[in-house]
Amino acid sequence: MAAEPAEAGGGASSECCEMSSSDLVSFVAITGDAVLDCATYRSKLDEPPNRPGLCGAVATFEGLTRDDFQGKKVLRLEYEAYAPMAARVMLRICEQAREKWPSLKKLVAAHRTGHVPSGSASIFIGAMSPHRGDAMDAVRYLIDTMKEEVPVWKKERYDDGSGAWKENPDCKAPGKRWAASSAAADDDKRDGREVRLRKE
Q: To the nearest 5 percent, what fractions of the chain are helix, strand and coil?
């Protein structure tokens, strides 16, 4: 199963990586696009043209910026990431999901960096499988695990001009988190499968 570079719509500081084999596809992207085009990423979950009717379920999740935090008006979130490392970690999590739910046919995960205004999407997750249970469980696993392990940093900006870097409460062991991320960044070849990243 070889990883191939893939288009992700362009944008500043974008990293994308696609791993595919026959009708199995995992696609991950860290993008600096001005808008996270969820419709484009959703289209990557379309059925293979040579296998119509292959799957009976597509489950998706979109994470949006809330406009309130403990009574403070949130104007936007500011995300930063070391894109090559983040993309590799996201891809590894997709591989782990495939091990848990072997029936999964396609997985898509995209995270936006830069300024994300209130009401806008910062992350898209999608899964395609023959049955809804696996797709829905995989999406929940992907978003929860990515929040725990992907090296993305978030700062909230408020209407009073202040801001605060937000610690991720889902990350139970920060030290292990970054150690695991660094190991993934150094490991471009796993089980004979090469992961290639391209800067857009």
A: 30, 40, 35
Q: Residue 7 in contact with residue 23, Cβ under 8 Å? A: no
CB-based contacts of 72: which residues, under 8 Å, 6+ apart?
156, 158, 159, 160
Under a CB-based contact definition with an 8 Å cutoff, are residues 82 and 151 in contact?
Answer: yes
Q: Tell me how far apart the 2 most distant CA atoms of the chain are, in Å.
A: 55
Closest CA to 110 of 74, 146, 145, 135: 146
pTM for the predicted model, two decimal places: 0.77
Q: Which residues pair with 108 in a beta bridge?
A: 27, 126
Q: Report the chain (200 residues): mean pLDDT per 10 consecutive residues.
A: 40 57 77 90 84 89 94 93 89 94 94 94 96 97 96 92 78 42 41 40
End-to-end CA gap in the chain: 23
Q: What does the buried/exposed string (b/e) look like for 66-99 if buried means 16 or more CB atoms within 10 Å of the residue's CB?
A: eeeeeeeebbbbbbebbbbbbbbbbbbbbbebbe
